[in-house]
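Structure in, sequence out. Go:
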């Protein structure tokens, strides 16, 4: 195998092709560098004193989502904030762990992009040494806005100029799109660089594998109940083939598997999360993952609408998610549309 090229070299090539400008190239480099720092913190585990809950004296620290924060949620957020505030390419930032967005304050240099991130995805897996990750999305700051507010971030997923995630697993990998394919880079720990190990990831169109939290089954809507029942019926059911199931409960790990070997990932609407609109967050989970999946030949939907066309109404908006192998996502969507048509 020929020597893989570095992330820096790949980004320079994309700039030469006119796919990105120098600002966006450097922005991605800054995010990648922050992810390397998070990877080191995650890798130290119990030795780094970073496991367990955030907060003091037995008092849990609760974020804007109403969820208890882990120490690594807080640390990863701080690493991304610090790195990007000094980067000079951003006008503002928004994070799963912060109530409102943050315009880059004086005296930091201000740029033209907006960055949204889930600093540590899969928090429930931190203390059990299972893969976690960082998810990010890059938007343009609207023209004429120098101090962006929450509403300036409310752009549909189609407006993303870059998206990616870093998975902290047996190896640390950065999976990135700047709108020209989805590419995977593996961190060479000795050299300290991300190296391009898969150019142009492709999701097989069809699959026999699904990912869903089955413990929520009785809370799902009827079309989701019907869809999964038919998958479980296997060879004897209407699908005529047996399906396998996987659920890591870190979206990064589940999506990484799907980008690698296909499958369908779903976090559907259920009666526990219906009032909030779903479980997963549109702006820094669903949208970046949907762009990566579409760029790899897959599909992503809310079950009723293409994910990337959802017009956001709030920064921490939640949505139902179906993404992965295109033919299978289309089938899941069809169950929902047929149900809606039959029930008005
Ligand atoms: O525990 P559940 O309900 O199966 O949820 C798992 C889902 O929750 C999440 O962990 C939410 O992410 P955070 O850890 O960033 O809050 C997703 O990664 C994952 O798909
Ligand atoms: Mg998450
Ligand atoms: Mg998180």
């Amino acid at each position: 195998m020929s020597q893989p090229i570095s992330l820096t070299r790949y980004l320079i090539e994309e700039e030469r092709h006119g796919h990105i400008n120098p600002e966006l190239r450097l922005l991605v480099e800054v995010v990648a560098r922050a992810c390397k720092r998070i990877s080191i913190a995650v890798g130290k585990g119990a030795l780094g004193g970073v496991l367990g809950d955030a907060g003091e004296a037995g008092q849990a620290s609760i974020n804007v989502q109403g969820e208890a924060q882990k120490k690594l949620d807080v640390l990863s957020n701080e690493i991304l904030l610090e790195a990007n505030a000094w980067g000079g390419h951003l006008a503002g930032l928004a994070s799963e762990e912060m109530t409102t967005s943050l315009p880059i304050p004086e005296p930091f240099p201000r740029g033209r992009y907006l960055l949204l991130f889930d600093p540590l995805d899969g928090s429930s897996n931190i203390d059990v040494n299972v893969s976690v990750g960082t998810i990010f999305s890059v938007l343009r700051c609207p023209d004429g806005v120098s101090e962006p507010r929450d509403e300036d971030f409310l752009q549909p997923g189609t407006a993303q100029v870059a998206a990616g995630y870093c998975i902290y697993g047996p190896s640390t990998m950065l999976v990135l799109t700047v709108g020209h394919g989805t590419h995977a880079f593996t961190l060479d720990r000795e050299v300290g660089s991300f190296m391009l190990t898969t150019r142009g990831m492709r999701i097989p169109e069809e699959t026999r594998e699904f990912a869903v939290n089955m413990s929520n089954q009785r809370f799902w809507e009827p079309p989701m109940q019907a869809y999964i029942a038919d998958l479980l019926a296997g060879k004897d059911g209407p699908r005529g083939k047996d399906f396998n199931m996987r659920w890591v409960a870190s979206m990064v790990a589940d999506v990484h598997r799907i980008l690698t070997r296909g499958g369908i990932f779903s976090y559907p609407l259920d009666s526990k999360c219906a009032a909030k609109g779903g479980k997963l967050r549109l702006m820094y989970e669903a949208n970046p993952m949907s762009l990566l999946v579409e760029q790899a030949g897959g599909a992503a939907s809310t079950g009723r609408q293409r994910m990337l066309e959802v017009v956001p109404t709030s920064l921490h908006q939640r949505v139902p998610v179906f993404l992965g192998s295109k033919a299978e996502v289309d089938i899941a969507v069809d169950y929902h549309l047929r149900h809606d048509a039959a029930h008005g």
